[in-house]
Amino acid sequence: MIFRRSAAVIAAIALVWFPYTPAYAAGAPRLLINQDFPDPDVVKTGTDYFAFATSTGPVKIPVATASAPEGPWRVTGDALVNPPSWAKADGGFWAPDVTTLPDGTFVLYFAAAVAASGQMCLGSATASKPDGPYRPGGDPPLVCESGDGGDIDPQTFLDSDGSRYLLYKSNGKPTGAPAAIWSQKLGPDGRTLVGNRTELLRADLTVEKGVVEAPSVVKTSSRYLLFYSADTFQNTGYHTCYASAPALSGPFVKADAQFLSTDLLGGRVDAPGGADVVDGHIYFHGWLAGGRTARGLYELPISFPGDAPELG
After folding, report:
1. Within 13 Å, how many C-alpha atoms sit on residue 291's CB side?
2. Distance (Å, rounded) from C-alpha 115 to C-alpha 85?
3. Cis peptide before 72, with omega less than 30 degrees from 0?
4. Tens digit of each residue's pLDDT (9 = 90 or more) over 222-277
5. Domain 7-306 classified CATH 2.115.10.20?
6. What is the rounded CA–CA span in Å between residue 65 and residue 20?
């Protein structure tokens, strides 16, 4: 396990390590959806796979399906029928996540702008099928902390004891605390917050440029691994990292080296981020065709020897 060091040491490690790329050696990333499908969330139900993405054009929550993790994937429509009453209908719905409750109900989480204020908050909707249609209740936003500068990027995690948690990002403020990733326990209905939230990590490294986001947790035999994206998503330097802890509550220690980056992938994916790990695969988005107008869905195999992630 590699542990966090000073920013100067990290920079030195990057210069030495990045030419010898474990991701590149693992094989070329597979492009699964060659159209705009940003901030992917992938869900397996039975033998089928479903993927959800941030709004693209008039589609609020794009949904795609496949019968195998590598595809072929087919974008089938919009998972969110109607926006919640508190959200701006044309403000976009970001970074969705879907979880399944014990009674078979599917819960969709998303970030949206509050109609009255423009603040980004987290909401939820439910459906009887994984691809929807999802319908929001009449509830206010699920998470809407006034001091956070906006809350985005919801992602659920089901622990081995059956406890369900909602992870998300607080945006932070230019003159205040930087962006952070939080964990909040959920009640059995998946739409009730239980207790106080816990801060898992903050954007405290120079290379992160004040941004940590897109959390996703994997539990190995003895560790909790928190994958997250850093830097600004429009930049080629946008990348995916991970941190490790003995418990979901932390303390999380950031790995010394980046896990996915443009350089580590041999330039085959531009700004890989928004990662989600499902069933031995890591899914992530990257800019298509060398531009900044659409992010496609990519995949690589992943395993966890020695409680650390490894591609291939």
Report:
1. 8
2. 8
3. yes
4. 999 999 999 999 999 999 999 999 999 999 999 999 999 999 999 999 999 999 99
5. yes
6. 35
Using CA atoms, how far apart are residues 121 and 310, in angstroms rounded to an integer?
Answer: 34
Residue given tokens 């033998």 in the structure block: 47
CB 73 within 8 A of CB 64: yes
- Calculated CA dihedral for residues 38, 205, 224, 52, nearest 10 degrees: -10
Q: Answer whether 265's CB lies under 8 Å from 24's CB.
A: yes
pLDDT tens track for 104-137: 999 999 999 999 999 999 999 999 999 999 999 8
Output the six-digit token pair for 75.
Answer: 């974008």
Tokens of 125: 């909707």
Phi-psi bin for 225: left (phi > 0), alpha (psi -120 to 50), beta? beta
Residue-range domain boundaries for the chain: 7-306
Separation between Cα atoms, residue 163 and residue 161, nearest integer Å: 6
pLDDT, residue 139, reads: 84
